[in-house]
Amino acid sequence: MKLVQKNAAYIDGANLHKGAKSFSWDFDYGRFRVWLREKYAVDQAYLFIGMMPKYSQLYTRLQEQGYTLVFKDVIYDGDGKAKGNCDADLVVAAMRDAYENKFDTVVLVSSDGDYASLVKFLLAKEKMKVVISPYETSKCSVLLKRTGVKISYISDQKTILKSTK
Question: Is the pTM of this model over 0.90?
């Protein structure tokens, strides 16, 4: 009898959004969620994102597509630019869930080197499956690459993840 893996994805929403905007094609979040489930057996996909009321319809759509949204309050810098840095929240949630054995392995969606320590920790615990980079190879942090983790690039999945709308 085959055991079913219970995997979780921790997604840096700002990093994914910025990476997707850099593509020459329209990224489909719904297709991405299905792909995570089918390719990596992701049961829970936690999307860490800044909370801005004007995007409430987007949040509803993402939840309908199967994402569990984890909100961070947004503050504004001196120029009025929104800041909702979720890095620390993502790390704490992933480490808490690892200690509580809420998943078998993790899929991390980000190109940010700030997550290198988390990746090293999860690799040591044999709970790290893959990092999925929203950016091409040259823009994915060398700090992530140095961990030795398997890195997959969203841009390589254009035929699957491109919006058909």
Answer: yes
